Sequence to fold (132 residues):
Amino acid sequence: MIHASTFLRRALLADAVFSGVAALGFTFGTGAFASLFNLPEVLLRETGLFLIAYTALVAWLASRSEVPKALVMLVVVGNALWTVGSIALLLSGAVSPNLLGVIMVVAQAIATGVFAELQFIGLRKSGSAVTA
Fold:
């Protein structure tokens, strides 16, 4: 456990808000977003369901003054991998989004990459290990 800096907690909270909005939209608006972006419904629905659990974890971390360093690093690495995976999905040809869909995937990949960087900076700004 480490003392979470205010910077880290705010970066986690921003990620939780962003992810929570996406989770609700993709879970409950699957059909509308699938049509809007020309992306498979199953991809959006499963992404939304995953993001519900992810949002809960990140919001919980953001609410703590002391956090497990390994768990925060898992979030940072997960965000970095999500960014790379999103771009790889577009380049793979496995999906054929329209222009708006490409813009949305790239925008969320950039945002997720920014969250990874901010959380990593916040982790470095965080205090020493908590001893009991």
